[in-house]
Each structure stands twice: as structure tokens, then as C-alpha cells.
Amino acid sequence: MSTISKVAVAGATGLLGKPVVNQLLEDGFTVTVLARKGASHDFPSAVTVAEVDYEAPATLVKALSGQDAVVSAVGFAGLLQQIPLIEAAVKAGVKRFVPSEFGGDAENDKITELPMFVDKRPVKELVEKEAAQGRLTYTLVSCGPFLDIAVQHGMLVNFKERKINLWDGGERPFSTTTLAAAAKAVTGILRHPEETKNRVVFIRSASLTQKEVLERAKKAAGPEGWTVETPSVAESLRAAYADLNATGVVNRFAFVVSAIWGEGYGSNFQKLDNDLLGVKELSDAELQTLIEGFAK
Ligand SMILES: NC(=O)c1ccc[n+]([C@@H]2O[C@H](COP(=O)([O-])OP(=O)(O)OC[C@H]3O[C@@H](n4cnc5c(N)ncnc54)[C@H](OP(=O)(O)O)[C@@H]3O)[C@@H](O)[C@H]2O)c1
Fold first, then answer.
1. In this structure, which of 10, 80, 119, 153 has its CB flanked by the most CB atoms within 10 Å?
2. Where in the sequence is the domain holding 256, given as residue range(s)?
3. Are 99 and 121 in contact (CB under 8 A)?
């Protein structure tokens, strides 16, 4: 496959989109961001801004013509907008599509059975179908929870209230990746289009258990006064489905918990593409420093 140099980014204003754009620029790619009509934005001056309307496919085809790749970092509310985006990418002759996946094991269908993640399935199925017909290539990124964001938001450990959940006892290992490393993986994919063609890539900054997170948290913030709970993932999932049936509300937290700490979701990755993509695992000291950074 020929070299990829021109890259369009969807969802460029988001949590993941911003570091992706910055990493692409840093690594020498020519970046066009797809800006939704009327949305406010503040992009780096080095990017080209193409205004698009996901409901007007011609605007997408126009924005994508001449692009080698599309990286999608759209948030949950926009996941299904990737369907017209993929169709436009095919029409425009884009070579590689990187969907907004960036979660747990994308080869494990149990994840997309969870209501929170259902919209990721038709996107994956469409890129697979287009790839099977030779009209596009794709790469899906499995990175586990964003490590820094999950600590910052109290998902792994809540420093503010000195609380932690050891789900199912806290001994099940899971892979986790910093936001910056996930962005680095994207440029790694685009630099290695042949090796990453039509498959899931697996990366991580660390493999952890909640018991290890607790030990590290105690080391960072002192050993006293922690509230440690050991909830059941299955119980939490049952309650979330009961809520969903009763109220129609998706308990995002419970479904994310299930994908990370539930049995059979494949969240401790067994095969890694770190070396290929230039993503480093954190050393013991780096991991501790990262956690300590959120302990204050
Ligand atoms: N592994 C993890 O821990 C983790 C955590 C969070 C997210 N993720 C994944 O990372 C990907 C990106 O998530 P994110 O949290 O970065 O997303 P986000 O910040 O919530 O949103 C990203 C962008 O999506 C765009 N968008 C397109 N259509 C939209 C719509 N209809 N409504 C709202 N926004 C829309 C917006 O950008 P424009 O205005 O520029 O179009 C928005 O800034 C997702 O696949 C998500 O599942 C993973």
C-alpha cells in the first residue's frame, strides 16, 4: 500500500480528537479536520478546516476527496454518523478508515452487546464489508480505558473521597492506555498501513488489577482512611438492565464497568501491537508518577 500523508479527522474537537490532531501534526501528516456546520472550534493553524454536514453526503465526499485516510474520533452521540462518512470515504477513494473504536477488545462481540456500545457494531460491520470488496481498508484500535482519564474521573480510584471499587474482588487484570498513547497509535497505524490493514490493533500503557491500583493509590496518598468496596460486576450489570427496562436510561458507568472488569470481555489483551506502532508500556516508576499526579 502506498504511503499515507493526507489525513482527515472527524470529531477533532473531542477528548480523543484533539490529541489525535496534535500527534498527526507532530508526526508530519497533512491534516484536514471535518468541522460540523455551525459548530464552534479552535483548531491549530496548521490544519485545513473542511465544513461538512453529515446529513449531506456530497459535503463529505467533497471534504474527503484527495485524502489518503480518515481517522474518526467522534463521540458516542455521533457514532452512527460514521456510516455516511464511510460511504463518502469509499466514494472519494480514501485508502484507510480508522473508526471511532478506541475501547475494549474489538474482536469480542460481547462488548457490542452492551447497550452503551451497540452503535459501534454497524460501523465495524460496514468497514469489514467494504474491505472485503476491496473498496477501503480499515484499522480498529483496542486500547482499553484511557488510563489518565479514568484516574482523573475517579473511575479506577477516587482520590477525592478516598474510595475504590475492587470489582469482583479486584484481581482481574485489564489493559489500559493513556490518551496520548492512543493518539500515538493512530500515527503508528498510518505509518504502517500494510501491517495494520483490515484488522484490530491492540495497545496498552499498562496491564493492571484494581488491587494493584489500590496499592499504588495508598503509596501515592497514604494508607489510611480508604473505603474499599468489592461489588459484583454481574450484579451491577443486572441492575443496569433493570433500570434500562424500567426507565429507558442507559447507565453508562455500569456498562463500562462490565466491559473492563466483567468476565469474558477480553480486557487483558494477549497480543500487542505496541512495538509496531511506537507505543511504549509505562515503567513501574512512570505508572506510579502518573497515578500520583492525580492524588493531590
Ligand atoms: N477508552 C476509553 O476510556 C474511552 C473514553 C472515552 C471515549 N472513548 C472512545 O473514544 C472515541 C471518542 O470519544 P470522545 O470521548 O473523545 O468523544 P467526545 O469528546 O464526546 O466527542 C468527540 C467529538 O465528536 C463529534 N461529534 C460528531 N457528531 C456528534 C454529535 N452528533 N454529537 C456530539 N458530538 C459529535 C464532536 O466533534 P465535532 O464538533 O468536531 O464534530 C465531538 O467533539 C469514542 O469512540 C469513544 O468510545 C474511549
1. 10
2. 147-175+205-267+278-293
3. no
